[in-house]
Design brief:
By secondary structure, this protein is an alpha+beta fold. Helix content is 31%, strand content 27%. It starts with a strand and ends with a strand.
Amino acid sequence: MTAITSEARGKVNLTLRVLGRRTDGYHDLDSIVAFADVCDVVWLQPGKPMGVSVMGPFAAAIAGPNLAERAVLAAVEACPDLAIGHFGIEKLLPVAAGIGGGSADAAAVLRLIRNSNPKLAPEIDWLAMAESLGSDVPVCFLNTPCHMSGRGEILRPLHAFPALSAVLVNPQVPVPADKTRQVFQRLAAPHLPAASTAAAMPMAAGPGAWLDLIVAAGNDLEAPAVSVVPDIADVLTALRAHGLTRLARLSGAGPTCFALTETAADAAALAATIAETHPTWWVRATQLH
């Protein structure tokens, strides 16, 4: 049978507030999330033995259980009658990079299973399954700009969100295996009651207003992330020093950073300059939408 394919697009936290730590150990977040054209590629070969194969330039960097494999097992556990098959992943996004590569792969796996099982799919709560796999998997499953709150499970699609020209940069340095835990630990967010409440929905009219809203916010994880991975500061300095950059910020817990530019041509020019001056960095011009 013919393989079916899904893009696992990189997730970018354009804004990220950490409201506090709950009694269950999770943190309540308030984030505007968009997705890059830069992606892993995930495909399903129906009728093949069930499993997951990973290839590509960042395949060897995956340590521990692959979240995509957990997604397959979760789907089978939820509905043993699902037709699965074998999944392939071309790993083009850096691993443990703050752009949700593993979460995007798992989400793409769930979408492929859902789409290839049209009769059984309506019986399954796909977003609940995504939530069981990780805080970033639900928004990656929707694969559209969202306002994200709770620990990541409260999602409100931003249907009028404009496409933004951007550059993604990762310094490609070793990061601790528990990087995200260390970053949140150093943030030392205040404790919250057990119950999560949805953060206020951001509202903006037009691309300029959205940009103003994004600029006015920030990423609460930036300072603690720099203390864990100091090279993040070098990336932000390089991006902020360039005249084409409108805004430079960390995505998630990093170390990937992004810069917003006026146009796609500006993003391409900025990416070329950064790649030339820092040849060991991973640099990609993209559109966020």
